[in-house]
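Q: What residues go here?
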């Protein structure tokens, strides 16, 4: 029994290579009695082992290493896009503070060192904008490189063609849905997939009355962003 968070890839891959059967427990679906007097790692391990013996241990899917690698590359692309947006907004805010008028994101993307030099701003302000624009240009190159590699990895899959045939789903959305979903067979029902994509409302009711909400973050946050 091993407790881990973000750093479990190497351990699971090593155990599976050595021939061990590995299960990834879904901790969000495991509830323990709140009145227990003793709790800790040993007690948790015994509880999980008991659920496993009963055949009711909720588990998640362990995707193959090659699938995880491509999926994580898509997540890295999203991180780079968010970083680029941060720098674009920084330039917009700088110009708004200095001139009272905010330039658009498209204008920011077209800025060059020569155009920045022509702006009626203090030298130090222009230097700050140049720094942001330099980072934006670098991020553009990295994002383009990631998108080309992702297209090579998923573009030939029939599921990708099927997704991109849906109105409103382009290359980025199709790639995200495909990689974050994994084998669709792992979802027994349509409702299971909808819940995994965070498309199902979360509520607690008693005697027909709503008592609150909870578990709204259970599922895949990337799929929650992806559906149009």
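A:
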């Amino acid at each position: 029994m091993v407790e881990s968070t973000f750093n479990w890839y190497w351990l699971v891959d090593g155990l599976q290579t050595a021939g061990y059967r590995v299960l990834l427990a879904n901790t969000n679906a495991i509830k323990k009695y709140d009145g227990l007097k003793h709790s800790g790692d040993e007690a948790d391990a015994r509880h999980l082992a008991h659920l496993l013996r009963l055949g009711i241990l909720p588990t998640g899917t362990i995707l193959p290493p090659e699938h995880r690698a491509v999926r994580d590359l898509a997540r890295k692309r999203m991180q780079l896009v968010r970083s680029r947006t941060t720098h674009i907004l920084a330039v917009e805010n700088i110009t708004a503070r200095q001139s009272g008028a905010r330039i658009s994101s498209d204008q920011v993307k077209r800025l060059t060192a020569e155009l920045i030099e022509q702006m009626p701003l203090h030298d130090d302000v222009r230097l700050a904008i140049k720094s942001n624009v330099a980072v934006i240009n670098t991020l553009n190159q990295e994002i383009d490189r990631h998108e080309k590699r992702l297209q090579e990895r998923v573009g030939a899959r029939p599921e990708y063609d099927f997704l991109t045939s849906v109105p409103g789903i382009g290359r980025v959305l199709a790639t995200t849905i495909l990689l974050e979903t994994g084998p669709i067979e792992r979802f027994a029902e349509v409702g299971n997939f909808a819940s995994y994509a965070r498309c199902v409302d979360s509520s607690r009711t008693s005697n027909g009355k709503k008592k609150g909400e909870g578990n709204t973050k259970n599922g895949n946050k990337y799929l929650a962003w992806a559906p149009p």
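A: Context that may help when evaluating the design: Residues 65-154 form one domain. The longest helix spans residues 65-99.
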